Amino acid sequence: MKALQGFAWLLCLQLAGEVLARVFKLPFPGPVIGMLLLMPALVWPAVREPVIDVARFLLGHLSLLFVPVGVGVITHLDILRAYGLRLTLVIVLSTWIGLAVSALALRALMRNAPTEEEAPDA
Q: pTM score, two decimals?
């Protein structure tokens, strides 16, 4: 029963996000706004407990959510044949760029981190 309550909370927050996105003509999709609304809502146990239950249920069945994607890929094999090499190149390059940016950001942040000599003893 709690899982249904959690699912209802998720749907209500997504609906609220959709309404806010359309009323205020926001450049973000409704589900993203709903997820941002979920963050502060998780402070209350009446929201947190049911959402934890539904999250466990959904994570337990996560593999089923990939079935539609797999079917979509199979039905569009002709497009994959035509653009597969380009898609692979874009995926590899974007992954490397993301890794490089993350490494540079980490290096910049670690410059200000205290060293072991400067860290206070616990």
A: 0.61
